[in-house]
Amino acid sequence: MAAIEMKNIVKKYGDGFPAVNDVSIDVEDGEFLILVGPSGCGKSTLLRMIVGLEDITDGDMMIGGKKVNDLAPRDRNLSMVFQNYALYPHLTVYENIAFPLRLANKPDSEVDEKVREASKTLELDEHLERKPGNLSGGQRQRVAMGRAIVRDAEAFLFDEPLSNLDAKLRGQMRTEISRLQKRLGITTVYVTHDQTEAMTLGDRVAVLKRGVLQQHATPRELYENPANLFVAGFIGSPPMNFLPAKVDGNKVELPFGTLTIPEDKAAKAQGKGLLIAGIRPDHFEDASVMDADKVSDEATFNATVDVVEWLGNEAYAYIPFEAPPEVREQLTQLEKDLDGESMRTQLVISLDGASRIKEGDDATIWVDARKIHLFDPSTGENLT
Ligand code: ATP
């Protein structure tokens, strides 16, 4: 096993816009790193440069403290698990797992020992004589991982390994990959565009946008302290609400009312003119289902609820608002950056399942003002 260090990595295809632009990320020995971002952000290119399938235009790629820029893929001793698993249909599970060992001319006894050990870890020992065509998606995935394990590779690299599976199996396989990675303690880099995979699997997550690293942090840090508007909008479902905001003293004026925010937050946003406030759906609540002593007038507002979606344990309420022209352009650009995943003209609020708010109600909504983020609309930077 080995640490991976990416130092100021640049990749240009032809003379176009860099697909990867000055990215530096350290992956510690045994760490699980996620590379995440919307389509085209450069995550696969970065992974392919680690493995050696793509030349590095500039910067240094270090594996186990050794520069590997010019090493051929086979000399890097990394195991890559592809989206389509790349299994050999005519070979049995046993021979698929054994494949890298056969290629390395290992003696039969060693092949047998390693294949049996890996298949036990992966609970494939009852299927060793079957062919991939007779396996479920999850089992095929495990065979692909078995082939990676037997090689005693320095690191595992995954390129969207679960994207061909249905939602249920994807959930199961996610847990399985996590358990296996922890048990083996092997350095892992995993590419996905799925933020649930990013948040649940990674020790740390690197968020990319158009080739540029936006933030490299633990999942909790990304959720609680996003560095900028892009990360804030990308992480979290339903996405963070973005609203025009003006700060005066420790009051913040939002389209639906004025709230009092903690002084340290307010201090960082003084005299900056119109800002963009970010509030997660979870940080609102129906004031009528809360303890009265938690609710103060300075943290509530009244609004007419447009639509309510009830999901059992919680409900989403939608409240339309109008963004002023000064921030409209910024929010439209953000939507584009996020692949149009979010709607920026309505507030989404996550309500406790006990809430009885219904469509058309004029409701009193509480906001957890300590959790408000304030962003600079021109740079996108999180000021708070
Ligand atoms: P996806 O999730 O869609 O696979 P990605 O984040 O993995 O996207 P990359 O595949 O790394 O993104 O692509 C990054 C950028 O580099 C894109 O603009 C893409 O069009 C470009 N690109 C990728 N491969 C090549 C290539 N072989 N030649 C030219 N441009 C390429």
Tell me what the structure shows:
Residues 4-235 form the ABC transporter domain. The radius of gyration is 25 Å and the shape is elongated. The chain has two domains: 4-229, 3-Layer(aba) Sandwich (Rossmann fold), CATH 3.40.50; 238-375, no CATH class. Helix 5 links the parallel strand 7 (155-159) and strand 8 (187-192). The model has no long low-confidence stretch (mean pLDDT 89). Helix 2 (93-103) crosses helix 3 (108-121) and helix 2 (93-103) packs parallel to helix 4. Helices cover 27% and strands 29% of the residues. It is built from ten helices and 21 strands. With 384 residues, the chain is α+β, with helices and mostly antiparallel strands. The protein has a six-stranded mixed sheet, sandwiched between helices. Strands 13-12-11-14-21 form a five-stranded antiparallel sheet. The chain has helices at 43-51, 93-103, 108-121, 137-149, 167-184, 195-201, 219-224, 229-234, 263-268, 325-337; strands spanning 4-11, 20-27, 32-36, 58-63, 66-67, 78-81, 155-159, 187-192, 204-209, 212-217, 241-248, 251-254, 257-260, 274-279, 284-286, 300-304, 307-310, 314-320, 346-352, 362-367, 373-375. Residues 13, 19, 37, 39-45, 193 line the site of adenosine-5'-triphosphate (ATP).
